[in-house]
Specification:
The complex is a heterodimer of chains A (354) and B (304). Chain A is built from twelve helices and 14 strands. Chain A is α/β, with parallel strands linked by helices and 354 residues long. A six-stranded parallel beta sheet of chain A has the order 2-1-3-4-5-11, sandwiched between helices. In chain A, helix 3 links the parallel strand 1 and strand 2. In chain A, helix 4 packs parallel to helix 5 and helix 8 runs parallel beside helix 9. Chain B is mostly helical and 304 residues long. The longest helix of chain B has 27 residues. Classes of the chains: A alpha/beta (354), B mainly alpha (304). At the A-B interface, strand 7, helix 8 and helix 9 of A face helix 1, helix 4, helix 11 and helix 12 of B.
């Protein structure tokens, strides 16, 4: 109902803006999988849109559709945007991959950008972020700060992005304390505040005193705050939910990428490519370090600078859980190996769900 | 350790217990309201909004109850007065609740909530183990138990409770005896709405003090299953809710101690347990029939 209403409003706005569209140089359109108020994934994309709007002022016009289901509905939504004069369309969820490719074939003059996918075309580019870079840093912080030497990790689904996050976290922690322990709990959900809170309690009860998560709600941080433990924000800065518990947060910042690509459309230099940006590109940003002693903040900033300078957290020696070597000393895993990661590093006792 | 697990189980079970005990009364009167999830989520958002605006958790809880009742009044009007299909109307109520709560809650996303305080009873709360578990909970936990006892007493020890059950078992006879079937059912539906709203308030004010869209995450449906699980007996709802809470919390603990069991299997355990109990209960067909409201879900149109 809500999205229908907003869609209607947006449609009316299109009609009214028909002549105004000529005034703006470029029209950028966005398709979101969730509501812009999820305070997570879609929220951060919308923040990026607003940033771009602010940057370009009158030269840019934007529009968005929220809560667009992945599947046939998405194709319709994307096609409507293409017909209504959008110059560049950002489709921000994995499930929009095939619809985006399909619509892009029909509109060769419109540029398409698909987030987190792997299919490109002459007018379809893909983009994603190296979240695991941030996870390496928070792993180091956890190992420095933990008194029990055990951290808890609330995980959603055993897909490569989540697995590489867990591995990067532990590699970071092991770089500080080689004996550091990590307990992983799978809640098999992206979003269930109650269950995430229960998982956080279970981990804290079992001796973890720092927790982190790859699920979308702020509930685990609230539990940490209540119990006097600590944790990290996910996707956006969650400091107001846990002013005493949050050390930092791994923030998805899409703004710089959106500005860069829209600028290229304006200049006529846009071309299809696959972007996988991290700390260096400013696509992954660490929220301010709080509740930490100075030396730990210094260490975190140093690592941040090192990664931004081109160092890859998945640099050998890396040993897999089963004892086989994943990367020799000094060897860096290639993008494909990280994007398709389906094994744990040594030191994790949990068995990876298959 | 055991104490900590028990405390987590209590918080996981309480919203299920409150919502289920309300629905039990509704179904005992012969009405099937599948809109528990929708009423619960409305209770969650309104409770959060009011507590946030007024700074009072108590007002939030009251507002949540009112929101649940308003939703159930809509349902009651449709199915009892206009005699619409109960299953379809209940489903519609859930969809409406999820959508409408998102609309109301838009302004409250990303704001930390107010947590209902734990009641501290001097003396009793200090007893080791027993104190923290039994005498250091928030008010809604005590209310959940009071509700169960009150409902059990009402249904089986009072005249009005007998009337309500008879309406659910044979609305034709109850009508012939001069009881207002519609009015009694409407009251039961309102009570169910109030309980669902209260369960929603527990989610957004005690369990995870925040508002995010769809935060009840299917708990209303589990409450509905628990009513069947309990074979419409109030005390069995407690067993069901706590069993469900326990299995889902122990699943997380089992993972944290690194038991070598696939997490997907552990996650499905609460549901498997529910199905198992349902099978065991329905094996004894006569016993089941004794407690099943015979007119459950059947429309009633009084002949004038």
């Amino acid at each position: 109902m809500k999205s229908l209403l907003k869609a209607t409003v947006a449609a009316v706005a299109f009609a009214a803006a028909g002549s105004a569209a000529n005034a703006a140089d470029v029209k950028a359109c966005y398709i979101y999988v969730g509501p812009v108020g999820d305070f997570g994934w879609s929220y951060q994309h919308d923040q990026g849109r607003l940033e771009a709007e602010k940057h370009f002022g009158d030269k840019l016009e934007t529009a968005y559709l929220e809560s667009v289901p992945e599947g046939p509905d998405a194709e319709r939504a994307i096609e409507r945007f293409a017909r209504e004069g959008c110059n560049i369309i950002f489709t921000t969820s994995f499930g929009y991959m095939n619809p985006t490719i399909k619509v892009a074939k029909k509109f060769p003059d419109v540029k398409f950008e698909h987030a987190t996918g792997y299919k490109t075309a002459d007018n379809v580019a893909t983009y994603n972020s190296k979240f695991h870079e941030g996870r390496y840093i928070i792993g180091q912080i956890a190992a420095k700060q933990s008194k029990t030497g055990v951290a808890g990790y609330i995980a959603s689904f055993p897909i490569p992005e989540v697995v590489s996050g867990i591995n990067a976290f532990l590699l970071g922690a092991q770089s500080v304390n080689p004996d550091f322990k990590l307990k992983v709990v799978w809640v098999n959900s992206w979003f269930d505040p109650g269950k995430e809170a229960d998982a956080a309690k279970a981990l804290l009860d079992q001796g973890a005193d720092v927790i982190t998560q790859h699920t979308d709600s702020t509930a685990p941080l609230q539990v940490a705050q209540e119990r006097g433990a600590h944790g990290f924000g996910q996707a956006s800065d969650m400091i107001q939910f846990a002013p005493e518990a949050q050390y930092t947060a791994i923030v998805d910042d899409w703004g710089p990428y959106y500005i860069e690509r829209i600028q290229e459309v304006m200049d006529g230099t846009w071309e299809s490519k696959s972007t996988w940006g991290g700390l260096a590109e400013g696509h992954v940003v660490m929220a301010p370090y709080t509740n930490l002693p100075d030396d730990v903040v210094a260490m975190a900033k140093e690592t941040e600078a090192k990664i931004a300078g081109g160092w890859e957290p998945f640099t050998g020696p890396i040993t897999k859980q089963d004892g086989t070597v994943a990367a020799e000393e000094g060897v860096t895993l290639d993008d494909g190996a990280i994007l398709g990661m389906n094994w744990y590093v040594k030191g994790i006792d949990d068995k990876l769900p298959q | 350790m055991f104490e900590a697990v028990l405390l987590t189980i209590i918080t996981a079970a309480t919203p299920l217990l409150i919502a289920a005990i309300g629905e039990l009364v509704v179904e005992r009167s012969g009405v099937l309201n599948l809109g528990v999830e929708g009423m619960m989520i409305m209770g969650a958002v309104v409770g959060f909004a009011v507590a946030n605006q007024t700074g009072s958790g108590t007002l939030g809880v009251i507002a949540a109850i009112a929101a649940g009742m308003a939703m159930s009044a809509l349902f009651g009007f449709l199915v009892l007065v206009l005699v619409t299909n109960q299953v379809a109307t209940g489903l519609a109520l859930t969809i409406l609740g999820i959508g409408f709560s998102g609309l109301i809650g838009e302004a409250f996303i990303g704001i930390p909530g107010l947590k209902l305080p734990d009641l501290y009873i001097p003396g009793l709360s200090d007893i080791p183990f027993i104190g923290p578990v039994f005498f250091q909970q928030d008010a809604l936990v005590y209310i959940s138990f009071a509700l169960v006892i009150a409902v059990a007493y009402f249904l089986f020890r009072t005249r009005l409770g007998l009337v309500l059950r008879s309406v659910g078992d044979n609305h034709g006879s109850a009508h012939a005896l001069g009881y207002s079937v519609i009015r009694i059912r409407f009251a039961a539906v309102l009570f169910g709405g109030a309980c669902a709203g209260l369960a929603g308030a527990y989610m957004s004010l005690a369990y995870t003090p925040q508002w995010v869209e769809n935060m009840t995450a299917g708990r209303g449906w589990i409450a509905l299953a628990l009513v069947v699980f309990s074979s419409w007996l109030p005390l069995r709802v407690v067993i069901g809710a706590y069993l469900f809470g326990a299995v889902s919390v122990l699943n997380l603990h089992a993972q944290a101690v690194e038991l070598d069991i696939p997490s997907q299997l552990l996650s499905s355990l609460p549901y498997l347990a529910t199905i198992l109990v349902l099978v065991l209960i329905s094996a004894n067909r006569r016993l089941t029939l004794v407690n099943t409201p015979a007119c459950l879900g059947k429309p009633f149109v009084p002949d004038r």
